[in-house]
Amino acid sequence: MTAEIICVGTELLLGDILNDNARYLARELAALGIPHYYQTVVGDNRDRLKHVLDIATRRSQLLIFTGGLGPTPDDLTTETLADFFGVPLIERPEILADIAEKFARRGRQMSPSNRKQALLPQGAEILTNPIGSAPGIIWQPRPSLTLLTFPGVPSEMHRMWQEIAIPYLKTQGWGRNILVSRTLKFWGIGESVLAEKAGSLLDSTNPTVAPYANLGEVKLRVCARAASAEEAEALIAPVEQQLQEMSGHYCFGRDEDTLATAVGRLLLETGETVGVAESCTGGGLGRMLTEVPGSSHYFWGGVIAYDNRVKIGLLDVSPEDLETHGAVSHEVARQMAAGVRHRLGTSWGLSITGIAGPDGGTDAKPVGLVYIGLASPDGSVTSAEYRFGETRSRDWIRHVSACSALDLLRNALLR
Amino acid sequence: MTAEIICVGTELLLGDILNDNARYLARELAALGIPHYYQTVVGDNRDRLKHVLDIATRRSQLLIFTGGLGPTPDDLTTETLADFFGVPLIERPEILADIAEKFARRGRQMSPSNRKQALLPQGAEILTNPIGSAPGIIWQPRPSLTLLTFPGVPSEMHRMWQEIAIPYLKTQGWGRNILVSRTLKFWGIGESVLAEKAGSLLDSTNPTVAPYANLGEVKLRVCARAASAEEAEALIAPVEQQLQEMSGHYCFGRDEDTLATAVGRLLLETGETVGVAESCTGGGLGRMLTEVPGSSHYFWGGVIAYDNRVKIGLLDVSPEDLETHGAVSHEVARQMAAGVRHRLGTSWGLSITGIAGPDGGTDAKPVGLVYIGLASPDGSVTSAEYRFGETRSRDWIRHVSACSALDLLRNALLR
Predict the structure, then answer these.
(1) How distant is the Cα of B208 from the closest Cα of chain A, in angstroms?
(2) Residues B178-254, CATH architecture
(3) pLDDT tens per residue across span A268-322
(4) Which member of A149, A382, B5, B114 lies 3.0 to 4.6 Å from A136 by CB, making a disulfide possible if both were Cys?
(5) Is the minimum CB–CB distance between A47 and chain B shorter than 8 Å?
(6) What CATH number matches the domain at A3-171, 2.30.180.10, 3.30.40.10, 1.10.275.10, 3.40.980.10?
(7) 0.95 surpassed by complex ipTM
């Protein structure tokens, strides 16, 4: 009993978008212990999709489709499936009503082309889409063959997979051998140094331990396979503990944790609050902090001081120091942090000033030079210098600067 | 004459990595005007790779493989190809020498397993790897069938593709027809409405016109195929103009344009400046504006007023109005916009206040309710209400709110 992933969309053949849906589904199938041996990408083309169906239905028992469920004429997954199995399309009034209601709620008119999305093959069940207008199907067009279709929009596909497809597949006997994974997350330590610390643990087979690194963040993924989630957890627990002890304060969380949730948890514990003052990140640090639901309990806000006039006017940075040391300096970072803490009345003030590039760098102050300031509840103010290197992109420097600021606050809160 | 991409690697089936190689090659093939209709992912497995070969060799004349060229036992692309076509593997002394030299240069010993990488099918040419140890092959195992193999490491694959594969393909008559594409970008109009407006243009064949939608943004991609870039541009130009006229102000740009670059261009033209006041987006609007290098010419900064105390203290929002109308209201949005314009001294003030969820919604003010305020250079202040719907994620609502704010300013600048 094997599954197979089929992604439909000419935009994938043109290289316009990365096939993140295939990766998502591959990971999910692995987690459920459902084997899958092939992934196929095919364009919005009836004949070629039929050709792919002909091949896939001969070798797999569960076919998972993404894409081609939209309202436009080039969205033809559903009708091609019906045609392939020689089954008529039937209009489902409940889908039509659902689409109309979703449009009405946003104060918009349903367009006639959306009507097409209510046409499903006779005998197929509706795979409800809780967000968008395109529902999928769960269909067994013949014994021992199950088809699931999802829209190509990742957020819609993910919810439909989690809320409907997984429970359905479990009732059908798929996914009996379970894979449980735990991801430990680290900041401030390199992948190779962490891998050396982990040593022989990287060679273990159940659970496996594998390092990943992206945008300054390093992860260790611990995966265990067992007959039940409990047994898998029991295999993971001692390894996880060993890795955490070995890495100390570098480990800021696991799985869905981010630096922002880690900081938020610590601030909730102490009952303290934070405000931010941002120059080169332009709001990215505030955005990161407020990605966390409930962050209003400890994050009050801040000042985006992109222009020096705002640093002076709203953060009380000294015009003389701006002149003498420049906007990208320890002095200005500290005054920004102290200024936002004072103006907002928060426990902590956290600031960022730097050169994100691609222009604006000099020999003395190259692109990638960033200062982060931290004003503490006791009134003391510190700052740290970072040199991220001139080869990094503007996006990278801005992202890693915001993360570094959060990590600086996190370490201060841990002390 | 069509090409096909075959990516070999169990890590792709486990979802450990994104298939960026397929996207890279897809884009390259599109740019060369070489049609390709299928992409396949298969694991490190001899029998299944042969099965994929059996299918691909029947339908395509150029097969491009990535992955499975390394020294370990699970790297079996080369030997499986030789086996499939019934051709022996021959050790190539020049490859062996090259690998040994690369190891020596890094002060390392070549391991015995690297010897395997010098074994290529009889009759295959070497596709030299200028960086790593794994060479690929260029092979015509039978008339009208060309195979290219590349290592899975993106940096190696890219250089081998650019430096060797492209020139080779051109000598073989591939890529004589060029594909040029233009993407028009829209905000404030639905995909289905835009598709209906485009009407019969969606059925044209050269150039083709196809709609895409993601995160509130809608795109129309115009693709022309011709013998030269100039001819392709000439095919695109009238269609592009027609689409732009038909869609009016909904079209904010093309190709690499974003709403932030569109707003920036208009502000540079008028010599005006903007400041932002953000509640639910927490800095996301400022971050979006400052993604554009050089945005300091028109973006001065702003206030992240997540907590009402910051709305009152730094934006002069009236405590009474906050009490009477609530923070998420036309009144507060307008006062935030006027407040930031006044405090910063910018030409424009742009504000966002809303309920991003998942909690905090009520019947009267559900999740997804957002107000955007705009204070203009003439002192007038307007606001707009958006209802994005309660089913949208926090991330979606925050992202689309920031885009909607930029679009409101863009439309005001156009008037």
Answers:
(1) 12
(2) 2-Layer Sandwich (3.30)
(3) 999 999 999 999 999 999 999 999 999 999 999 999 999 999 999 999 999 999 9
(4) A149
(5) no
(6) 3.40.980.10
(7) no
- B interface test, pick of A42, A72, A157, A391 with most B CB neighbours within 10 Å: A72
Q: Report CB contact under 8 Å: B42, A43.
A: no
Tokens read off for A206: 């159940």
Output the CATH code of domain B259-414.
Answer: 3.90.950.20
Instruction: Report the pLDDT value the prediction gives residue A211, as an integer from 0 to 100.
Output: 79
Pick from A22, A108, A344: which is nearest to B190 by CB? A108
Positions of E strands within A198-318: 208-214, 217-226, 251-254, 274-278, 299-305
Contact by Cβ (8 Å): A34, A62: yes
pLDDT in tens, A119-170: 999 999 999 999 888 899 999 999 999 999 999 999 999 999 999 999 999 8
Q: Is the pLDDT of residue A379 over 80?
A: yes
From chain B residues 163-222, the ones with a CB under 8 A of any chain A CB are: 181, 190-193, 195-196, 202-203, 210-214, 221
For B292, the closest chain A residue by CA position comes to A394
Which DSSP symbol is given to B109? P
**What does the block give as tokens for B222?**
């115009």
H helix runs in A165-277, sequence order: 166-171, 191-198, 229-247, 259-270
Residue A159: both structure tokens together? 């919810």
Domain ranges of chain B: 3-171, 178-254, 259-414
Nearest to A286 among B14, B296, B304 (CB): B304
N-terminal to C-terminal alpha carbon distance within chain B: 51
